[in-house]
Design goal:
single chain; Rossmann fold; seven-stranded parallel beta sheet; 7 strands; 47% helix; globular
Protein backbone atom coordinates (compact mmCIF):
# COMPACT_ATOMS: atom_id res chain seq x y z
CA UNK A 1 0.00 0.00 0.00
CA UNK A 2 1.22 3.48 -0.86
CA UNK A 3 0.90 5.55 2.31
CA UNK A 4 1.63 8.80 0.44
CA UNK A 5 4.45 9.81 2.77
CA UNK A 6 7.04 10.55 0.10
CA UNK A 7 8.83 13.83 0.82
CA UNK A 8 7.19 14.24 4.23
CA UNK A 9 9.67 15.15 6.96
CA UNK A 10 9.52 13.34 10.30
CA UNK A 11 11.20 13.51 13.71
CA UNK A 12 11.17 10.35 15.81
CA UNK A 13 12.39 10.96 19.35
CA UNK A 14 14.35 8.11 20.90
CA UNK A 15 14.80 6.37 17.55
CA UNK A 16 18.13 4.56 17.91
CA UNK A 17 16.55 1.31 19.14
CA UNK A 18 13.28 -0.45 19.84
CA UNK A 19 9.94 0.87 18.60
CA UNK A 20 11.46 4.23 17.66
CA UNK A 21 14.02 2.65 15.33
CA UNK A 22 11.39 0.41 13.75
CA UNK A 23 9.16 3.45 13.11
CA UNK A 24 12.06 5.40 11.61
CA UNK A 25 12.90 2.49 9.30
CA UNK A 26 9.34 2.17 8.02
CA UNK A 27 8.90 5.91 7.55
CA UNK A 28 12.10 5.97 5.51
CA UNK A 29 10.89 2.99 3.47
CA UNK A 30 7.71 4.93 2.69
CA UNK A 31 9.79 7.78 1.29
CA UNK A 32 9.81 10.17 4.25
CA UNK A 33 12.89 12.10 5.29
CA UNK A 34 13.57 11.09 8.88
CA UNK A 35 15.42 12.84 11.68
CA UNK A 36 16.93 10.20 13.98
CA UNK A 37 17.37 11.12 17.63
CA UNK A 38 19.42 9.49 20.36
CA UNK A 39 21.51 10.16 23.43
CA UNK A 40 24.86 9.89 21.65
CA UNK A 41 26.29 10.32 18.18
CA UNK A 42 27.49 6.73 18.24
CA UNK A 43 23.96 5.42 18.78
CA UNK A 44 22.66 7.67 16.00
CA UNK A 45 25.38 6.55 13.59
CA UNK A 46 24.61 2.90 14.35
CA UNK A 47 20.89 3.47 13.75
CA UNK A 48 21.51 5.21 10.43
CA UNK A 49 23.84 2.40 9.35
CA UNK A 50 21.19 -0.16 10.29
CA UNK A 51 18.52 1.59 8.20
CA UNK A 52 20.79 2.21 5.22
CA UNK A 53 21.82 -1.45 5.19
CA UNK A 54 18.38 -2.27 3.83
CA UNK A 55 17.55 1.11 2.30
CA UNK A 56 20.64 2.63 0.74
CA UNK A 57 18.75 5.67 -0.56
CA UNK A 58 17.02 6.48 2.74
CA UNK A 59 17.12 10.18 3.59
CA UNK A 60 18.29 10.40 7.18
CA UNK A 61 19.84 12.94 9.51
CA UNK A 62 20.66 12.60 13.19
CA UNK A 63 20.55 14.94 16.17
CA UNK A 64 21.78 14.16 19.68
CA UNK A 65 19.56 15.29 22.57
CA UNK A 66 19.17 14.58 26.27
CA UNK A 67 15.46 14.94 27.06
CA UNK A 68 16.21 15.43 30.75
CA UNK A 69 17.98 18.68 29.83
CA UNK A 70 15.82 21.59 28.62
CA UNK A 71 18.78 23.31 26.97
CA UNK A 72 19.50 20.17 24.94
CA UNK A 73 15.86 19.95 23.88
CA UNK A 74 15.82 23.60 22.77
CA UNK A 75 18.95 22.93 20.69
CA UNK A 76 17.28 19.90 19.10
CA UNK A 77 14.19 21.93 18.17
CA UNK A 78 16.33 24.66 16.62
CA UNK A 79 18.33 22.16 14.57
CA UNK A 80 15.33 20.19 13.34
CA UNK A 81 13.50 23.04 11.62
CA UNK A 82 10.07 22.37 10.13
CA UNK A 83 8.57 18.88 10.13
CA UNK A 84 5.34 17.28 8.97
CA UNK A 85 5.34 14.33 11.37
CA UNK A 86 6.30 14.13 15.04
CA UNK A 87 6.59 10.78 16.80
CA UNK A 88 6.82 11.32 20.57
CA UNK A 89 8.50 8.05 21.42
CA UNK A 90 11.37 8.72 23.84
CA UNK A 91 10.87 7.33 27.33
CA UNK A 92 12.46 5.64 30.33
CA UNK A 93 11.12 3.27 32.97
CA UNK A 94 12.09 1.85 36.31
CA UNK A 95 10.85 -1.28 38.00
CA UNK A 96 10.72 -0.57 41.73
CA UNK A 97 8.29 -0.37 44.62
CA UNK A 98 6.15 2.71 45.20
CA UNK A 99 7.91 3.60 48.48
CA UNK A 100 11.30 3.19 46.84
CA UNK A 101 10.40 5.61 44.03
CA UNK A 102 11.52 8.98 45.36
CA UNK A 103 10.75 12.49 44.11
CA UNK A 104 13.83 12.54 41.89
CA UNK A 105 12.66 9.37 40.14
CA UNK A 106 9.20 10.81 39.56
CA UNK A 107 10.58 14.10 38.27
CA UNK A 108 13.03 12.42 35.90
CA UNK A 109 10.38 10.11 34.48
CA UNK A 110 7.87 12.91 33.96
CA UNK A 111 10.52 15.20 32.51
CA UNK A 112 11.60 12.65 29.92
CA UNK A 113 8.39 10.72 29.24
CA UNK A 114 5.89 13.58 29.40
CA UNK A 115 7.62 16.94 29.09
CA UNK A 116 9.61 15.78 26.05
CA UNK A 117 6.31 15.34 24.23
CA UNK A 118 4.96 18.64 25.55
CA UNK A 119 8.02 20.60 24.46
CA UNK A 120 8.26 19.03 21.02
CA UNK A 121 4.54 19.31 20.33
CA UNK A 122 4.49 22.93 21.47
CA UNK A 123 7.37 23.68 19.11
CA UNK A 124 6.09 21.94 15.99
CA UNK A 125 2.28 22.04 16.16
CA UNK A 126 1.94 25.74 15.20
CA UNK A 127 3.69 25.26 11.85
CA UNK A 128 1.61 22.15 11.13
CA UNK A 129 -1.53 24.19 11.73
CA UNK A 130 -0.24 26.98 9.53
CA UNK A 131 0.42 24.46 6.74
CA UNK A 132 -2.92 22.75 7.44
CA UNK A 133 -1.25 19.32 7.53
CA UNK A 134 0.59 17.34 10.14
CA UNK A 135 0.70 14.24 12.27
CA UNK A 136 1.61 13.93 15.94
CA UNK A 137 1.77 10.45 17.46
CA UNK A 138 2.31 9.73 21.15
CA UNK A 139 3.76 6.32 22.04
CA UNK A 140 2.02 5.37 25.28
CA UNK A 141 1.86 1.85 26.75
CA UNK A 142 -0.56 -0.81 27.93
CA UNK A 143 0.72 0.19 31.39
CA UNK A 144 -1.41 3.33 31.06
CA UNK A 145 -4.35 1.04 31.81
CA UNK A 146 -2.73 -2.11 33.19
CA UNK A 147 -0.75 -0.59 36.07
CA UNK A 148 1.98 -2.91 37.42
CA UNK A 149 2.60 -2.35 41.11
CA UNK A 150 6.33 -1.97 40.48
CA UNK A 151 5.84 0.60 37.68
CA UNK A 152 3.33 3.09 39.08
CA UNK A 153 5.34 6.19 38.16
CA UNK A 154 5.97 4.93 34.62
CA UNK A 155 2.29 4.07 34.20
CA UNK A 156 1.28 7.56 35.37
CA UNK A 157 3.46 9.13 32.67
CA UNK A 158 1.94 6.95 29.98
CA UNK A 159 -1.59 7.80 31.12
CA UNK A 160 -0.71 11.51 31.00
CA UNK A 161 0.23 11.17 27.34
CA UNK A 162 -3.30 10.03 26.48
CA UNK A 163 -4.78 13.23 27.93
CA UNK A 164 -2.25 15.47 26.20
CA UNK A 165 -2.83 13.72 22.89
CA UNK A 166 -6.61 14.08 23.06
CA UNK A 167 -6.34 17.72 24.11
CA UNK A 168 -4.02 18.59 21.23
CA UNK A 169 -6.34 16.88 18.76
CA UNK A 170 -9.07 19.22 19.98
CA UNK A 171 -6.74 22.21 19.59
CA UNK A 172 -6.26 21.19 15.94
CA UNK A 173 -10.01 20.85 15.34
CA UNK A 174 -11.10 21.61 11.79
CA UNK A 175 -7.63 21.19 10.28
CA UNK A 176 -5.81 18.41 8.46
CA UNK A 177 -3.58 17.97 11.50
CA UNK A 178 -4.31 14.83 13.49
CA UNK A 179 -3.04 13.79 16.91
CA UNK A 180 -3.29 10.23 18.20
CA UNK A 181 -1.79 7.86 20.76
CA UNK A 182 -0.59 4.31 20.30
CA UNK A 183 -0.77 1.94 23.24
CA UNK A 184 1.70 -0.91 22.60
CA UNK A 185 1.60 -4.08 24.64
CA UNK A 186 4.59 -6.07 25.82
CA UNK A 187 7.02 -5.67 22.94
CA UNK A 188 10.18 -7.61 22.14
CA UNK A 189 12.56 -4.67 22.34
CA UNK A 190 16.24 -4.77 23.25
CA UNK A 191 15.21 -4.15 26.86
CA UNK A 192 12.88 -7.15 26.87
CA UNK A 193 15.55 -9.30 25.26
CA UNK A 194 18.09 -8.31 27.91
CA UNK A 195 15.59 -8.94 30.72
CA UNK A 196 14.81 -12.42 29.44
CA UNK A 197 18.48 -13.20 28.94
CA UNK A 198 19.40 -12.17 32.50
CA UNK A 199 16.46 -14.06 34.04
CA UNK A 200 17.34 -17.10 31.94
CA UNK A 201 20.84 -17.18 33.38
CA UNK A 202 19.64 -16.54 36.93
CA UNK A 203 16.92 -19.21 36.90
CA UNK A 204 18.58 -21.69 34.54
CA UNK A 205 15.56 -21.90 32.26
CA UNK A 206 15.22 -21.00 28.60
CA UNK A 207 14.17 -17.56 27.44
CA UNK A 208 11.27 -19.19 25.57
CA UNK A 209 10.01 -20.78 28.81
CA UNK A 210 10.23 -17.42 30.61
CA UNK A 211 8.31 -15.68 27.84
CA UNK A 212 5.59 -18.33 27.88
CA UNK A 213 5.31 -18.10 31.67
CA UNK A 214 5.05 -14.30 31.49
CA UNK A 215 1.98 -14.54 29.27
CA UNK A 216 0.44 -17.29 31.38
CA UNK A 217 0.77 -15.40 34.66
CA UNK A 218 1.68 -11.70 34.37
CA UNK A 219 -0.07 -10.95 31.03
CA UNK A 220 -2.70 -13.68 31.06
CA UNK A 221 -5.21 -11.26 29.51
CA UNK A 222 -3.19 -11.10 26.28
CA UNK A 223 -5.12 -12.55 23.34
CA UNK A 224 -1.99 -12.72 21.20
CA UNK A 225 -0.16 -14.65 23.89
CA UNK A 226 3.31 -13.49 22.88
CA UNK A 227 5.49 -10.40 22.65
CA UNK A 228 4.65 -8.11 19.75
CA UNK A 229 7.54 -7.18 17.51
CA UNK A 230 8.73 -3.62 17.09
CA UNK A 231 7.85 -3.89 13.40
CA UNK A 232 4.25 -4.80 14.24
CA UNK A 233 3.92 -1.67 16.36
CA UNK A 234 5.64 0.46 13.73
CA UNK A 235 3.19 -0.59 11.03
CA UNK A 236 0.30 0.84 13.05
CA UNK A 237 2.20 4.03 13.87
CA UNK A 238 3.23 4.71 10.28
CA UNK A 239 -0.27 4.08 8.94
CA UNK A 240 -1.58 6.77 11.29
CA UNK A 241 1.02 9.15 9.84
CA UNK A 242 -0.53 8.71 6.40
CA UNK A 243 -3.06 11.01 4.74
CA UNK A 244 -5.15 7.83 4.44
CA UNK A 245 -5.68 7.86 8.21
CA UNK A 246 -7.18 11.36 8.46
CA UNK A 247 -10.45 10.02 9.91
CA UNK A 248 -8.60 8.72 12.96
CA UNK A 249 -8.06 11.67 15.28
CA UNK A 250 -7.95 12.19 19.04
CA UNK A 251 -7.88 8.43 19.46
CA UNK A 252 -5.99 5.94 21.57
CA UNK A 253 -5.17 2.96 19.37
CA UNK A 254 -4.46 -0.27 21.19
CA UNK A 255 -1.66 -2.32 19.66
CA UNK A 256 -1.43 -4.45 22.78
CA UNK A 257 -2.22 -7.91 21.47
CA UNK A 258 -5.52 -7.68 23.31
CA UNK A 259 -3.98 -7.49 26.77
CA UNK A 260 -6.20 -4.60 27.94
CA UNK A 261 -9.66 -6.13 28.41
CA UNK A 262 -12.80 -4.50 27.07
CA UNK A 263 -14.34 -3.51 23.75
CA UNK A 264 -12.99 0.06 23.79
Amino acid sequence: MNLHLKNKRALVSGSTSGIGLAVAKLLAKEGAEVVINGRSQTRIDNAITSIKKDQATARLTGIVADFNDETSVRSLIKQVGDIDILINNVGIFKSQGFNETDDADWKEMFNINVMSSVRLSRAFLPNMLENNWGRIIFISSECAMLVPEDMIAYSATKTALLSISRGLAQVARGSEVTVNSIMPGSTYTEGAQQFLKERSLQENVSEQQLAEEFFKSTRSTSLLGRFTTTEEIASTVVYLCSPLAVATNGATIKADGGSVPGIL
